[in-house]
Amino acid sequence: MSIYVVQPGNNIDEIALNYGVPVIQIIEDNQLVYPYELAVGQALLIRDGDITGSGREIISNGYAYPFISRWVLEQTLPYLSDLSVFSYGFTSEGELLSPLLDEQWMIFMAAQYGTRAILTLTPLGADGRFDNRLISAVVRNPQAQEKLLNELLAVMEEKWYRGLDIDFEYVLEEDRDYFTEFVRICTQVMHEYGYTVSVALAPKSSAEQPGLLYAGKDYRTLGEAADSVLLMTYEWGYKYGPPMAVAPLNKVRQVVEYAVTEILPSKISLGIPNYGYDWPLPFIQNQTVAKTIGNIEAVRIAIHYGAEIQFDEIARSPFFHYFDEIGVEHEVWFEDVRSLQGKFDLIDEFFLRGPGYWQIMQLFRVNWLLLAERFRVKK
Asked: Which of 151, 169, 224, 297 is catalytic?
């Protein structure tokens, strides 16, 4: 595989001729839209043969809501070891709350592709909102834990889930040890029934990193308690923050370098975002809100407004600016095949478990093609 960065004056026929590959292959692989316009600075994945999958075996995971397109899920499942269904919640008494939409069809489809369905548990209350008070209520209450575990086991057996993912964010510092013990108990109980347990970790770069996202997560003890962990290495650039890369590689590397000192690399999944953000400028704190966009959508925006895509060599991420119809300037950061290659390099360098995608609701085909070329996905 090759990566070609579009230059001024390029067209798809010329690029295909230079590489000696069919035009339709470049179009389909890169999800180009008729009349197949290109943006200057756009990165294209060029395949000059069959995918070899000659690298080491990895475990890949992707999160999805039950309203995912059946076509998108079908296109994605061949590249996933695990499918994490988002999300079950619970009450302060430990009563399990199901997703609003039935997810059984996702589990059946995953099984057809040899992909394990994973039940994702988050502190979603009956009102559908995240509430870290629910975390405190359950991890400090053995009776609530027992009820929650019994209901989890019943659902997992009934619906053919193969594992549990504990995605608790904003764990209070005073609940840290209680949370670790909760994960340990979950793992012990789930193992008795043949299930695995994973836990999501905020992206820490040191043991004593302050902040609500970080203080309640002890990397070492959680890494010991669970079968695997997901480093949530994204959202540096986020909806309510200033414009920047969603997952800058220099920041991601810092998290990985710390994580492998606390947790076995073979247990660590690297979080990868499958989206970008479009910020109106100027950025005003507590006022500006970015729009979440897909990676293919980002390129379409650049083409529509005639913007040239730049590439930040430190963050290893693409970005561009444009002015909309009413003269407002925008800044866009997203992922492309170059930024993904950098993240795959980290997985290889540190011998990590594999990638974990938040989220797979939109198809980004070059990601999966590059993944299949670089690694062998365990099924």
From this structure: 169
- Whether 22 is in a domain gets the answer yes
Q: Does 153 share its domain with 209?
A: yes
For the full predicted model, state whether its pTM sits above 0.85: yes
Beta carbons within 8 Å of 251's beta carbon, 6+ residues apart: 203, 205, 233, 236, 315
Residue 39 lies in a domain: yes
Write out the two tokens for 69: 């397109």
Q: How far is CA 214 from CA 28, 86, 112, 301, 321, in A?
A: 41, 22, 38, 35, 33
Q: Do 10 and 124 share a domain, yes or no?
A: no
Q: Is residue 359 very low, low, confident or very high in pLDDT (cuts 50, 70, 90)?
A: very high
Q: Which positions ≥6 away from 363 have C-beta within 8 Å?
A: 31, 72, 75, 76, 296
Q: The CATH number of the domain where 342 resides is what?
A: 3.20.20.80
The C-alpha atoms of residue 162 and residue 269 are separated, in whole angstroms, by 18
Q: What is the CATH number of the domain that holds 18?
A: 3.10.350.10
Annotation says 169 is catalytic: yes
- Domain limits at 16? 1-50
Residue 141 half-sphere exposure, CB side, CA atoms within 13 Å?
Answer: 17
101 and 1 assigned to the same domain: no
217 touches 242 (CB < 8 A): no
Instruction: Give the model's pLDDT for residue 51.
Output: 81
Residues 6+ apart with CB under 8 A from 342: 249, 316
Q: Give pLDDT, residue 127.
A: 86
Round to whole Å and give the CA distance between 61 and 272. Answer: 10
Task: Please identify, among 33, 50, 67, the residue that sits at the C-terminal boundary of a domain.
Answer: 50
Is residue 117 domain-resident? yes
Contacts by 26-32, CB closer than 8 A, 24 or more apart? 28/365, 29/365, 29/366, 29/369, 30/365, 30/366, 31/296, 31/363, 31/364, 31/365, 31/366
Secondary structure of the chain: what % helix, strand, coil (to 5)?
35, 20, 40
Residue 315 has which token pair? 């963050």
Q: pLDDT-based confidence at 114, cuts 50/70/90?
A: very high
Same domain? 116 vs 151: yes
